[in-house]
Q: What sequence folds into this?
């Protein structure tokens, strides 16, 4: 008999609807039952493309014995972390505090008042190898709870007090961006790229900091570290050489063996990073990686509603990664022996294999070329179509506003940098979806699934969507995008502000949890406070408005202080600090007509991360003057394209295409 999760829209929650566990979704009904019956709450947090979530589900949550223990002694609650990052944030903080690390599935046992006293990640069903199994854990805690649970409640109170205790902000480093770069370079793996050892995560926001840092500070080591990491990730098995796009992370140092799930946010951020790398030097490899990644998103993740789905599963055909693996015989059968043999040699597809007897296509052993030989695109396409017919790959079809905001950033930047109208049209369509479907009655929502708009958007959702709209302005110069971004940004001080500085992750009128999350460090993706700092800085550069300057200054100061002695943990937040130190430039191009001059394209083609570009034409003049009043008096001189270059609040004399006037 199906449990209450059958009524949920989340694919992850519905996948547990037929478990023998009497699951509840997160909500008052579950906690009221726990209080009424004096039971602890068993909380399990995961997401649909999580490999170890599937394993724990098969081992434990589909097991009648485990279900019996849970149903008799606990109130069991399932949470989709992608729908409820606020809930996940609270208990992930407890997990990291208790264990030194965290991850998914996240397993927590709480009092009926939502206070955690036991937290961990994956547990096998039975104890093994010195590790306590879930059955033993559940029975031991149930026994203690039935004896009064005093010890467990004291632990819960202590853990909750720790979580709620105000963490003193460490004095900021004198030069947080420089310290962040030094810390990243200190962890840099010069042989294989990336930072640290296995497992290795792409952490694209670190690269999105290092690339402009290298350019503005002239740091060749930072540039080399960023480029080598981008190159090695592309060459490795973490990149899908057949269909494009990146898997979640690599389980080894070499980037060969990935955790095979693909997420929208990883691919959006990585496409953004490869596009950014291409801007400085125009290396064709960076453009190919960026375009193939965006094309993967457009082909595999786009939903009929206009947005993009969360991601695709690590498991397929009943095994991890089976969708992506090949044997030489398969390749030869699809491509023919003449093309199949060199293709296998190129991509390290061998009889012995490199992953459980089969091969993950990769270029790690291939040093002959950066770009593939002519004709290989069509060969890869044949294999992509073959593997799609060979087995299905599950896609989580939730549409999340923040993750779509990240993809809007990537599409819009690619449209501008590569002068690609296809990406521009997709970006415009995505912006219309976010503002038309995810934004209702002055409020942004986090999740759209099966036509149901659910959950208040968080700080990161607002900030990512607004940044995406500003990227779209950079691509097509429509002032309405700045206006829409400003409308979203205005919600941050109104609904998320902490009087002590920075912003909470959840709005003041959102559901009240055990504590109100507030994050200043970047994790799997940039945190909302980092994104807010960049958003305010960009809005000030484009509008000159004092309100955005004040917010940008205050938020940058908060990020610098909150980062403390480890600013590398807030790399995305280091971007506005870097730009503030270096100094920004605002260029206003005023045209006598609507045709864009070649000189404008030349300016756009230069890699200058400190530059913001505004375009004033007769058709845009009125709207632009309302948004950026400092442009009102700027005119085209002598019927020519005229440039006003401003820096530090001061604008120089106008310059035309043919020289100074």
A:
């Amino acid at each position: 008999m199906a449990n209450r999760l059958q009524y949920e829209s989340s694919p992850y929650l519905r996948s547990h609807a037929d478990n023998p566990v009497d699951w509840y979704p997160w909500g008052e009904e579950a906690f009221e039952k726990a209080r009424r019956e004096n039971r602890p709450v068993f909380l399990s947090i995961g997401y649909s493309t999580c490999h170890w979530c599937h394993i724990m589900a098969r081992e434990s949550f589909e097991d009648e014995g485990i279900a019996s223990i849970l149903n008799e002694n606990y109130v069991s609650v399932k949470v989709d972390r992608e729908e409820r990052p606020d809930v996940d944030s609270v208990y992930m903080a407890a997990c990291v505090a208790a264990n030194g690390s965290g991850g998914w599935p996240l397993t927590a046992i709480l009092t009926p008042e939502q206070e955690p006293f036991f937290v961990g990640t994956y547990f096998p069903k039975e104890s093994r190898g010195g590790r306590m199994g879930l059955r033993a854990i559940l029975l031991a805690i149930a026994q203690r709870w039935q004896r009064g649970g005093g010890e467990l409640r004291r632990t819960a109170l202590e853990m909750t007090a720790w979580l709620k205790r105000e963490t003193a902000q460490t004095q900021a480093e004198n030069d947080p961006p420089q310290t962040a770069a030094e810390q990243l370079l200190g962890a840099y793996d010069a042989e294989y790229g990336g930072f640290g050892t296995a497992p290795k995560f792409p952490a694209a926001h670190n690269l999105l900091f290092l690339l402009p840092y290298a350019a503005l500070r002239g740091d060749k080591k930072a540039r080399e570290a960023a480029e080598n990491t981008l190159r090695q990730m592309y060459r490795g098995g973490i990149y899908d050489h057949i269909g494009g796009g990146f898997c979640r992370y690599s389980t080894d140092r070499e980037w060969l063996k990935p955790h095979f799930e693909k997420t929208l946010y990883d691919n959006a951020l990585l496409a953004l990073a490869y596009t950014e790398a291409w801007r400085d030097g125009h290396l064709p490899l960076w453009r190919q990686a960026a375009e193939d990644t965006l094309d993967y998103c457009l082909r595999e993740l786009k939903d009929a509603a206009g947005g993009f789905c969360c991601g695709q599963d690590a498991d397929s055909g009943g095994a991890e990664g089976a969708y992506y693996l090949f044997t030489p015989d398969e390749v030869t059968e699809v491509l023919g022996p003449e093309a199949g043999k060199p293709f296998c040699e190129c991509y390290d597809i061998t009889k012995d294999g490199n992953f459980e007897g089969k091969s993950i296509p990769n270029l790690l052993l291939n040093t002959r070329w950066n770009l593939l030989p002519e004709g290989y695109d069509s060969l890869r396409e044949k294999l992509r179509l073959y593997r799609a017919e060979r087995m299905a790959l599950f896609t989580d079809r939730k549409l999340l506003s923040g993750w779509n905001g990240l993809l809007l950033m990537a599409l819009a930047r690619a449209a501008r940098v590569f002068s690609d109208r296809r990406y521009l049209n997709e970006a415009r369509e995505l912006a219309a979806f976010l503002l038309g479907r995810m934004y209702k009655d002055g409020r942004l929502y986090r999740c759209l699934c099966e036509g149901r708009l659910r959950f208040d958007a968080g700080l990161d959702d607002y900030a990512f969507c607004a940044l995406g709209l500003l990227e779209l302005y950079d691509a097509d110069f429509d002032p309405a995008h700045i206006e829409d971004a400003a409308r979203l940004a205005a919600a941050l001080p109104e609904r998320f502000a902490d009087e002590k500085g920075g912003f909470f992750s959840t709005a003041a009128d959102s559901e009240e949890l055990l504590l109100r999350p507030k994050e200043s460090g970047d994790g799997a993706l940039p945190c909302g406070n980092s994104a807010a700092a960049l958003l305010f800085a960009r809005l000030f550069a484009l509008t000159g408005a004092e309100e955005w300057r004040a917010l940008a200054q205050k938020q940058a100061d908060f990020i610098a202080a909150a980062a403390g002695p480890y600013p590398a943990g807030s790399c995305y937040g280091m971007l506005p600090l870097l730009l503030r130190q270096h100094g920004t430039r605002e260029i206003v191009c005023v045209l006598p007509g609507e045709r864009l001059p070649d000189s404008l394209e030349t300016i756009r083609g230069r890699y200058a991360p400190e530059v913001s570009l505004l375009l004033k034409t007769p058709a845009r003049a009125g709207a632009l003057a309302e948004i950026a009043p400092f442009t009102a008096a700027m005119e085209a001189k002598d019927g020519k394209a005229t440039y006003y270059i401003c820096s530090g609040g001061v604008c120089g004399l106008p310059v035309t295409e043919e020289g100074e006037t």
